[in-house]
Write a structure and sequence with these properties.
501 residues; two-stranded antiparallel ribbon; alpha/beta
Length: 501
């Protein structure tokens, strides 16, 4: 393919453009043309277009797959009709909850779109601070897995394993960091294409600024800084959040999780394609499944999206909480989580066939047993977490100065019931040389004794009270639902607000 003097058209461009646009509706084709004209204007004319760089953040799920395909159609449209086009940067973020199936989906999509060998494409994988060219089999850095494991455990113990705080709070701050690193890497980009509507962007920005103000951030200054201001506000939120989680003197943890804010002199424009397309997956099923080769993997496709397996673990934790904390059955907890999941899927207008697919994986005792084993295996392989550690997390025995420790030992580790005072002493740091007790605590929790002592001095979050940043974050999170459950103390019917994805 020739790239001399910005000329980018080739027969392969024409053939790929024809195949790709053959899957698009007339409305989508009009959107492709309109977006192309907008990019020409933003670049300063068609001759300047080859120097223009456009980024798409690719989570690996079905929705972001569509955005990548749409922007690739714009790139090819300009190449075919104007002999000039922009550089497309596609950046995917990973964390421990992203299974290989997601990377394999991304690889198939890239291959179908002809991106892997196109010099006009920059395909980046960002693993926290490590930025590399995409490769389907890139190993996940052990350091990143360790950070993710600690975050899940520390958040989970504070939230008794509730889905969103346990898995999403730290991850969402990591996503902000990812956007900064991806947008400013190697000279930065001129535009970021997103599937979020302008209204969604404004609502999200307003929520961030309210939260940042409550954390003591100068939001007036942030509002004057564009995209960097959003990231600066999120850095302030993250600093407050992780101080609440790890303590004020946890310099290492705070530095490892600091949100990158980029270069103020390079401010990419955010371009929404939301009003130009349909996001209902059944409107472009043939494109995503048949042409792009997207597969709804048994583990990676979990209820509302298909970009990580953490929602499967959220359901698993609900089952463990029902069994080990409330004295009911594991399946009771799963049924409650499925009630939440179905509500979220319908809110997201997922097609009935995908809703049925997600729910069908739990529709018999045998399938639920299989999902339980699958979840336990994934927790161990992805995060290095044993079932003991997950059970400890939903029981939250160490917070509130070990208020629930004796009950936890009686229920889950009866052989240690008589050792509660000894364990309290270790957690209070009164007997730091009790190596046997320290070893048992670390083994059963998956945390270091230093982190356990931090939990011991912390409290189980009361989500009905928004005085803490952890509770304020969940209060503003729409991914919640009241499920019908049973009050374990009285046996009476009850409603409980739970969160998930």
């Amino acid at each position: 393919m020739s790239h001399t003097a910005g000329r980018t058209t080739s027969e392969s461009d024409r053939a790929l453009h024809a195949r790709l646009t053959g899957f698009l509706s007339d409305v989508e084709l009009d959107g492709v043309k309109a977006t192309g004209e907008r990019l020409i204007d933003a670049a300063g004319g068609i001759e300047e277009l080859p120097g223009h760089k456009v980024m798409v953040a690719y989570g690996g799920g079905k929705d972001s797959t569509y955005v990548v395909a749409f922007v690739r159609a714009v790139q090819l449209h300009l190449a075919v009709h104007y002999d000039r086009t922009f550089t497309l940067r596609v950046a995917n973020m990973r964390h421990a909850g992203v299974p290989l199936a997601v990377m394999e989906n991304i690889d198939r999509v890239y291959r179908a779109l002809g991106l892997l060998d196109d010099e006009r494409a920059e395909l980046l994988t960002i693993d926290h601070t490590l930025v590399r060219l995409f490769r389907v089999d890139l190993p996940l850095p052990e350091h990143l897995v360790a950070i993710n494991r600690v975050d899940v455990l520390m958040n989970g113990h504070r939230a008794a394993g509730d889905g969103r705080p346990t898995f999403c709070n730290s991850c969402n701050l990591a996503v902000a960091d990812f956007y900064g690193r991806a947008a400013w890497f190697d000279g930065g980009v001129d535009a970021v294409m997103t599937g979020d509507s302008r209204r969604e962007q404004l609502l999200y920005s307003a929520w961030i600024m309210r939260l940042a103000k409550a954390c003591g951030v100068d939001v007036a200054e942030c509002r004057s800084m564009g995209f960097q201001g959003i990231l600066t506000a999120l850095r302030g939120i993250g600093d407050s959040y992780f101080r609440e989680l790890f303590g004020d003197d946890s310099d290492t943890e705070l530095a490892e999780r600091e949100v990158s804010t980029g270069d103020r002199s390079l401010q990419p424009e955010f371009v929404s394609i939301y009003d130009l397309v349909s996001y209902r997956v059944h409107d472009h099923w043939d494109l995503i499944v048949d042409f792009l080769g997207f597969r709804f993997d048994d583990l990676a496709f979990s209820f509302s999206e298909s970009d990580c397996a953490n929602p499967t673990l959220m359901a698993h934790l609900r089952g463990l909480r029902s069994q080990h904390v409330q004295g009911r059955s594991y399946d009771d907890g799963i049924s409650e989580y499925l009630e939440l999941a179905e509500e979220l899927m319908r809110k997201k207008e997922m097609p009935q066939n995908l809703i049925d697919l997600a729910l069908s994986r739990y529709d018999s005792p045998e399938k639920r047993a299989h999902r339980r084993a699958l979840s336990a295996d994934f927790a161990r392989e992805a995060f290095g977490l044993s079932e003991d550690a997950l059970v400890a997390m939903v029981c939250s025995p160490f917070t509130d100065r070990g208020e629930r420790l004796q009950d936890f030992l009686d229920r889950c580790h009866p052989a240690m019931s008589a050792e509660a005072d000894r364990l309290h002493a270790v957690l209070r740091a009164e007997t730091g040389d009790d190596a046997e007790a320290v070893s048992w605590l670390e083994e059963v929790s998956g945390l270091t004794i230093a982190h356990l002592r931090t939990l011991y001095g912390s409290f189980l979050v009361d989500f009905g009270n928004t005085e803490t940043i952890i509770s304020r974050v969940r209060a503003g999170d729409p991914h919640k639902h009241r499920v019908a459950t049973v009050d374990p103390r009285t046996g009476a019917p009850a409603l409980e607000l739970i969160s998930g994805r």
